[in-house]
Specification:
This protein is an alpha/beta fold and 158 residues long. It has helices at residues 28-36, 53-60, 105-114, 140-156, and strands spanning 13-18, 45-49, 65-72, 81-85, 121-128. The chain has one domain: Rossmann fold, CATH 3.40.50. It has four helices and five strands, in the order E-H-E-H-E-E-H-E-H.
C-alpha cells in the first residue's frame, strides 16, 4: 500500500484552531488555540487558520495526529462541545460547521482523505455557537465552552 501517511515522520502533533476572529463566535477555535500556547505543551505545534482547505492540507504535511477546533451550528445548546474522530470516517451528516468559505472543514477533511494526506489520527472538536456577527465578541456561553475545551485539551494532549 503506497499511503503517504505511512511514510510521514512519526510524532508530529498539531492543534489547529479554525475560524474568523472578526465574526463573533466563529472565532472560538482560534481563541482556544491562542490560549493553549500559554501552556507550553511539549512536542506540539499550534496554528490558527481560517479553514481554507489548501492551507489545512499544507498544515497536515508530516503530521501524525491533528486536533482541529472549530465552531458548529448543529442545534445543540450553545457552548456544547462535541468530539469526532475522523481518522477513518467522515464527519457526521447533518452537522453544520461554520465557514466563511464555500469549501468547509468537512470537505477539507475528505479531500485530505482522498489525497492520502489525512494524518493517521485526526480529531475534530466543535463548540456550538449562536452568532457570527461582525465585530462581536464571543457570547458568554461560547466563552464558557471555549474554557471547558481548553481544559479538556490540556489533559488530552499531555
Amino acid at each position: 500500500m503506497d499511503d503517504a501517511r505511512t511514510h510521514a515522520p512519526q510524532g508530529r502533533r498539531l492543534i489547529i484552531g479554525i475560524g474568523n476572529r472578526d465574526r463573533g463566535d466563529d472565532a472560538v477555535g482560534r481563541v482556544v488555540a491562542e490560549r493553549l500556547r500559554d501552556y507550553d505543551i511539549p512536542n506540539m505545534e499550534i496554528f490558527e487558520e481560517s479553514g481554507e482547505a489548501a492551507r489545512l492540507l499544507d498544515c497536515f504535511a508530516g503530521a501524525d495526529i491533528v486536533w482541529l477546533l472549530d465552531a458548529a451550528m448543529s442545534g445543540a445548546p450553545i457552548g456544547t462541545i462535541q468530539c469526532f474522530d475522523v481518522s477513518s470516517a467522515p464527519l457526521p451528516q447533518g452537522k453544520t460547521f461554520v465557514s466563511t468559505h464555500g469549501f468547509g472543514l468537512a470537505e477539507a477533511i475528505e479531500l485530505a482523505r482522498a489525497l492520502k494526506r489525512l494524518p493517521r489520527r485526526c480529531i475534530v472538536y466543535t463548540v456550538e455557537i449562536s452568532s457570527c456577527e461582525i465585530g462581536a465578541p464571543l457570547t458568554p456561553e461560547v466563552a464558557a465552552g471555549a474554557q471547558e475545551l481548553l481544559a479538556r485539551l490540556c489533559t488530552e494532549v499531555r
